[in-house]
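Hello,

Our lab assistant flagged a job as stuck in the queue for most of the afternoon. It eventually completed. Since we weren't sure the result was trustworthy after the delay, we are filing this so someone can double-check. Below is the sequence as submitted and the structure that was eventually returned. Let us know if re-running is recommended.
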Amino acid sequence: MTERLPPRTALVGGLLLWFAVLGGVSFWTLHALAAWAIDELTCAAGHDNLAGFPLTGAIALAVLVPAAGALAALAVSVLAWRRTRSDLPEGGHRSVGRAHMLAFVGLWLNMLALAMIALGGVAALVLPPCQR
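-- returned structure --
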């Protein structure tokens, strides 16, 4: 006999699964746009700080905040992958298998996004800002 989830539980679970799959990539996009924009726009204006805040500190925030979000998405994807990995009996829900596959894809996407954020942060923080 199959068991239906309450609508609210299904909605929250579905949203968490989508966060597990697309969260890291979204945070990587946020990092790439924010770090580049902060660096380019501040340097184009001829400044070395952003509203009194050092440029390297602003870039560090544009690295650390998205990295924390990507780590959260990675944690959710690991949790979803572990919760859905049980073997399905014959006639079980195929949606659990699909959720397991999506969580596995999210696991790898989030690790890749976290690596890209870290490497982008290293490049932004090691190279001198406003290099001309």
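-- support follow-up --
The delay was a queue issue, not a problem with the job. The result is valid. Helices lie at 7-44, 55-83, 94-126. The radius of gyration is 20 Å.
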